[in-house]
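A student in our group prepared the protein record below, which I am reviewing. What it holds is a sequence and that sequence's fold in token form. My question to you is simply how this chain folds and whether the tokens agree. Do not assume that whoever made the record got everything right. I have pasted the whole thing underneath without changing anything:
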Amino acid sequence: MAVNVWGIVSIVIFYVVIFAVGIWAGWRNKSFSKNVKSEDLINAGRSIGPFVGIFTLTATWVGGGYINGTAEYVFAPGRGLIWTQAPVGYALSLILGGFLFAGKMRKQGYVTMLDPFHQKYGSIMAALLYIPAFLGDLFWTAAVLSALGSTLAVVINLDITLAIIISASIAVVYTLFGGLYSVAYTDVIQLILIWIGLYLCLPFALTHDAVTNIADTAFDLLNVPGNNVTGKWIGYEALDESRAGYYLDRFLLLIFGGMPWQVYFQRVLSAKTPFVAQTLSFVATFGCLFSAAPAVVIGAIAASTDWNKTDFGQTLIPADRYRDVLPIVLQYLCPPAVSFIGLGQYNVDVLLSIFIYNIVFLTLFPWYVVRCCISGCYVISRQFCAISKLHVHPKCLQTISKSGWQAFRN
């Protein structure tokens, strides 16, 4: 397939704008100063106010996987809107996080979510607890990169591997320059773009000739001519008593599993005051639901479309393309100019999701693992130097070993 030049130009323009805003934000807050502390880059100097804070915390959840996954689940047969639990589950996790953790941890002046464990159990336990946090971020970043690659493949016919490599490289460079300052300010641009882009696409997709009224396809296909529409996007048939336990388990996983993420605590711990930290968590709940709404409608549109009447080239979207539902709708049911705006901002949204998890890695890894290793090596080297120069009584040696181990733990 030929590369779509105008599609590439559109996405490059979005990338350049976001990159420029991020570099400006880092420069504005003196991120390049030689006297800047590591905590200033990690938590933006505790200077995030309500406006920027609400946007950056909302954007933390509203990433490429969140938007793409919502549309996919609403569309997919056997799932539907009822099984699209992420928007509500994550919204509830933000509310609980605000009540239980945001204000208290900001008041204590913690830098990361592992600081309470570090204080209670020492450096080794904090370093070990970093491992599951790292794995979670690693798998989530892989999902985000996959969403980005599939989207670029749809809109500009770019090779998925090449798209992932280029986008990941940009994300790494960008994050190293600006820290949380850059990500926070560009999150404002990100949300504005994603709201404009997705909501702008809805009227064009809804009124396309190939799309049946989504109200007629919500529960059944009795009023839909032909058999080329997936339909039943509410998904009530997929929920029965035998799956009630599984449904509840998934909901609890989203609610309570949505809280222990450094990306969340990094935002609330960067707030100016504990009250602002709680406010960010509560208000971002509504931002997440508002951002998921167009993705839900796009999933319903995809389930209500006769794809034979479009340029998609297939009667139905195959199972291995369910993850591409959102970009497919924007590409084939919207005018080119509108689809480029929608897909351009969507790619920026995915790219910023990668920035967010780069920040997490650059925060937790050096803060716990590197510091733990360096401090441990330092203590051990001092003990060896002391033992090599002195003839130490066995009891004194035992005391030195215990003190060194205690210093290593703390």
Residues 113 and 262 are 6 Å apart (CA to CA). The mean pLDDT is 75. The chain is about 70% helix and 0% strand.
